[in-house]
Amino acid sequence: GAGVSQSPSNKVTxxxxxxxxxxxxxxxxxxxxWYRQSLGQGLEFLIYFQGNSAPDKSGLPSDRFSAERTxxxxxxxxxxxxxxxDSAVYLCAxxxxxxxxxxxxxxTVL
Amino acid sequence: RxxxxxxxxxxxxxxxxxxxxxxxxxxxxxxxxxxxxxxxRKEPKLLMSVYSSGNEDGRFTAQLNRASxxxxxxxxxxxxxxxxxxxCAVRRLSGNTGKLIFGQGTTLQVxx
Lengths: 110, 112
What we know:
The structure holds 2 protein chains of 2 kinds.
Chain A: E1 4-7, E2 10-13, E3 19-25, E4 31-38, E5 42-50, E6 65-69, E7 75-79, E8 88-96, E9 98-101, E10 105-109
Parallel strand pairs in A: 2-10
Antiparallel strand pairs in A: 1-3, 3-7, 4-5, 4-8, 6-7, 8-9, 8-10
Chain B: E1 4-6, E2 11-14, E3 19-25, E4 32-38, E5 45-50, E6 55-57, E7 60-65, E8 70-75, E9 84-91, E10 101-102, E11 106-111
């Protein structure tokens, strides 16, 4: 939605495997955010990219989580050695005066 | 205590009713305020920003009370299609970038 696509839409993985989630915004947005939404925790900020500045990683829950943004456009969120508590919907958002969310990736860790 | 709090509801109201939600925030440095609407298994969609003077968009009115640190959303003449979860969000930084802190959401169910 709103100029942001995410892939895959659904991902089922086994505990201990690594996963990579992708966010593909339309061009021209310097600010990009990752959030996750899980039952009982609501919508939580993970990481934020703004132009060439160092990303704000203050929301990443552990060092198993990392993200990068290449060429100021596509971003990937990587979760290593997935755990069951990582199961959530991972949402990417872009800034256009306000924040607009992509459709999300629903991650299920078995 | 969470930084942004909402009554989770659910609020069950008949069509045509007026319903109001409040959202409190604890960080007085919060600068920008928003209401999002989220339908089941969908992404949040921006409903409206909340301005200091209050603002209205059709049947929806948003208010900000900085002294008491809360924002409100009023929905008049509720429609069945208003059934959704309403999330409030605050941002600390001034300007137009920075992470959002969300409340848990308030569920609204409008019944015929």
